[in-house]
Design goal:
Elements: H1 2-17, H2 21-60, E1 71-73, H3 75-78, E2 91-94, E3 97-100, H4 105-108, H5 123-128, H6 145-161, E4 163-168, H7 177-195, H8 199-203, H9 206-218
Parallel strand pairs: 1-4
Antiparallel strand pairs: 2-3, 3-4
Length: 219
Amino acid sequence: MALELWETFKESITAYTGLSPATFFTVIALGLALYYLVSNFFGSSDDSHIQQRSREFEAQMQPLPPPVQLGEITEDELKQYDGSDSQKPLLMAIKSQIYDVSQSRMFYGPGGPYALFAGKDASRALAKMSFDEKDLNGDLTGLGVFELEALQDWEYKFMSKYVKVGTVKTTTVPVTDGAAEGQAATEATQDDVADGPSASVVKDTPEAAAAVVTDKDRE
C-alpha cells in the first residue's frame, strides 16, 4: 500500500511540475537552504539593531543627577546650560527664576520644539507665545493683561514641575561722573528758576537802574 502511494506521488510530481522526483526534491532542498541563509543574515542584522536601540533607550532612562543649586548667575553664564553640553543640566528661566528642566529634555533639549528657550530667560517669549529671537529675554515692559496672565500660568507650571536652582543676576547701568555733574547742574538751574531772578539780574534791568537814580536824588 505504501509503495503504491509513493509511486502515485512520484507520478503526480512529474505530471504537475514536469520534473523528475529527484530533481523536484533537489529544488526543494536548495530553496530551504537559501531561506535558512537569508533568514539568518537579516535576522542577525535586526537583532543587532534592536540591541542598539535597547542600549540607547536604557541610556535615556538612566536616573538624572540631582539638581545643583547655582545661586545667582548672569545671563551669559545661563547660556552655558542650553543643552549643547550633555554633561551639564538643562536650565531655563522665567521672571529671573532659573529652573532645571533636564527631565523634559525631549522638549527643551536640542531638536525639541522649545529648544530655543533653553539657557535663556524666556519670560517675554512665553507671555507672547513667540518664537522670535527678539522676544527671548526677560523684559516684561509693554505686555498686556492677557500676556501677563499667560506668563503667570507658565510660572505656576514650572514651580510645580521643576526645581528652582538659582536666579538671573540683574544688570544695572552705572551712573558716570559726567552724568552726575550734568544732573547736578540741571537741579541747580531748576532751583534758580524756582527762586526767581537773582539780585544781579534785577540790577541790570532799566527799571532797576531808574529806581537807583531816584533814590540818590532823594538823598
